Amino acid sequence: MDWLPLYISAKLALITTIILMMLGTPAAWFLAFTRFKGKLLCEALITLPLVLPPTVLGFYLLTIMGPKGFLGQWWRCLVHEPLVFTFSGIVFASIAYSLPFAIMPMKAVFTKIDRRLLESAFVLGLSRTAAFFRVVLPNTVGGIVSSAILVFVHTLGEFGVILMVGGSIPGQTKVVSIAIFEAVEALRYRDAGLMSITLLIICYAVLIMVNLLTEKRQGDARS
């Protein structure tokens, strides 16, 4: 059995998680502590992938990432390669699809911070950036890690969006969920079963980690 799709899925999940943590943390911080016109519209746009069918999201991503789309044209000018049906393309798609799993949980954690801690930090002369790294992060690291884990495990199971944007190119865009689907279509139930049970074990272990972190945060809050 070919385990390369599992490696591609793990690689995709890791890269997506790192990028979303870098981009999503300041975005969640901004949404949690800033009021501005259109904030509700912005949050609704971020959470749209949660309710939008993956094929619909994949279609629109394919449109803007294609040769005639603005993102596809920009990417071709930058690296002289197409964006769709490449590993870079499915990274872009995964970022868009997993965005709410990164930003919204972190925003919820940030909003629970005692504002008096931030006020004390500002009184002591800390800037907003310094207060974020010295006050906010130490008090929310568990929630941020939980968010990262959720993004990772969600990306591992992506199917519709990846299939629309990346297709099924062996060694490049053929992730484990697509490999399972193709194995079932070819009546290779043993291969599909092995890949499925491997993915099930990984996801189950990751969710246990999330639950442990959640219980630890609740225990620290009570103490």
From TrEMBL:
GO terms for molecular function: molybdate ion transmembrane transporter activity. CDD domains: TM_PBP2. InterPro entries: MetI-like, MetI-like_sf, ModB_ABC. One of its GO terms (cellular component) is plasma membrane. It is a multi-pass membrane protein. Its main location: membrane. It comes from the Bacteria. Coiled coil: none annotated. The chain crosses the membrane at residues 12-33, 40-63, 83-110, 131-153, 193-213. Keywords: Cell membrane, Membrane, Molybdenum, Transmembrane, Transmembrane helix, Transport. It is found in: Cell membrane. Residues 6-210 form the ABC transmembrane type-1 domain. Belongs to the binding-protein-dependent transport system permease family. CysTW subfamily. Part of the binding-protein-dependent transport system for molybdenum; probably responsible for the translocation of the substrate across the membrane. NCBIfam families: modB_ABC. This is Molybdenum transport system permease. It comes from uncultured Desulfobacterium sp.
